[in-house]
């Protein structure tokens, strides 16, 4: 039963970001199209295929414009405080919002930098994004500084997993977080400018073993 419970919760976490996104887009389209199409058919006499989709896009753009000004930010912040007080809803809302903000770029400090490290085995490299420095139990147990690294999945970067990695095992990349996310979303088809060079702050570091030795 414990294994089934763990698998069930893992499945919920895996499908939640995609499910929330699809549900919101479908509900938004159905609501807008269901409101506009009958009105348009009444005045024009026939339905225009695709008009509901265009109106939905325009509606989202108008919401974006509204959310960018002072009044819109004030209204949205009040709704955020309301959701923050609701049990369970607050956890789902905050998790989706933080990850979405980090991916879309509105919250610049969620992902600090793109890094690479050996995972899931030696000689195999993965890309991740540093979210913060760990100052808790892992440091107490190991005696080494660790970083929180979020490893997104491809092609849906809103799901992924958290790694506690020693700072010495992480290699910063000289690419932006946005370029790193493009690389993940495209499955490697879209390479960042410059091919993802090593960060200048480690370009002069030559190490052996399980670390990379930068080319001269």
Distance between the terminal alpha carbons, to the nearest Å? 55 Å
Unreliable spans are 200-216
- SSE string: HHHHEEHEEEH
Percent of residues in helices comes to 40-55%
* Large-scale geometry: elongated
| Number of helices, counting only DSSP H or I runs of 4 residues or more | 6
Tell me what portion of residues adopts beta-strand conformation: 5-15%
Compute the number of strand runs.
Answer: 5
Topology:
Layout: H1 2-44, H2 51-68, H3 70-84, H4 89-104, E1 113-118, E2 125-134, H5 137-142, E3 146-152, E4 160-166, E5 171-172, H6 177-185
Antiparallel strand pairs: 1-2, 1-5, 2-3, 3-4
Helix pairs in contact: 1-2, 2-3
Structure characterization notes:
With 216 residues, the chain is an alpha+beta fold. The protein folds into two domains: 2-104, no CATH class; 113-202, no CATH class. 50% of the residues lie in helices and 15% in strands. The chain is built from six helices and five strands; from the N terminus they run H-H-H-H-E-E-H-E-E-E-H. It has helices spanning 2-44, 51-68, 70-84, 89-104, 137-142, 177-185, and strands spanning 113-118, 125-134, 146-152, 160-166, 171-172. The chain has a five-stranded antiparallel sheet with strand order 4-3-2-1-5. Strand 1 and strand 2 form a beta hairpin. The longest helix is centred in the first third of the chain and has 43 residues, at 2-44. The radius of gyration is 22 Å and the shape is elongated. The protein starts with a helix and ends in a 31-residue tail after the last helix. The model is unreliable at 200-216 (pLDDT under 50).
């Amino acid at each position: 039963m414990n294994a089934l419970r763990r698998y069930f919760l893992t499945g919920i976490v895996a499908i939640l970001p995609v499910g929330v996104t699809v549900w919101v887009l479908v509900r938004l389209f159905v609501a807008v199209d269901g409101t506009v199409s009958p009105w348009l058919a009444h005045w024009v006499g026939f339905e225009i295929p695709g008009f509901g989709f265009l109106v939905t896009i325009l509606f989202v753009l108008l919401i974006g414009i509204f959310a960018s000004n002072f009044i819109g930010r004030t209204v949205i912040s009040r709704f955020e405080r309301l959701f923050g007080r609701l049990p369970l809803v607050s956890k789902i809302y905050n998790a989706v919002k933080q990850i979405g903000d980090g991916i879309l770029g509105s919250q610049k400090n969620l992902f600090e930098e793109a890094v690479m490290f050996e995972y899931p085995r030696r000689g195999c490299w993965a890309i991740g994004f540093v979210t913060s420095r760990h100052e808790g139990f892992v440091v107490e147990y190991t005696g080494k500084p660790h970083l929180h690294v979020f490893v997104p999945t491809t092609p849906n970067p809103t799901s992924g997993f958290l790694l506690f990695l020693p700072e010495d095992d992480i290699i910063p990349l000289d690419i932006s977080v946005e370029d790193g996310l493009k690389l993940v979303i495209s499955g490697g088809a879209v390479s960042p400018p410059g091919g993802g060079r090593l960060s200048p702050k480690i370009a002069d570091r030559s190490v052996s073993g399980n670390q990379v030795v930068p080319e001269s």
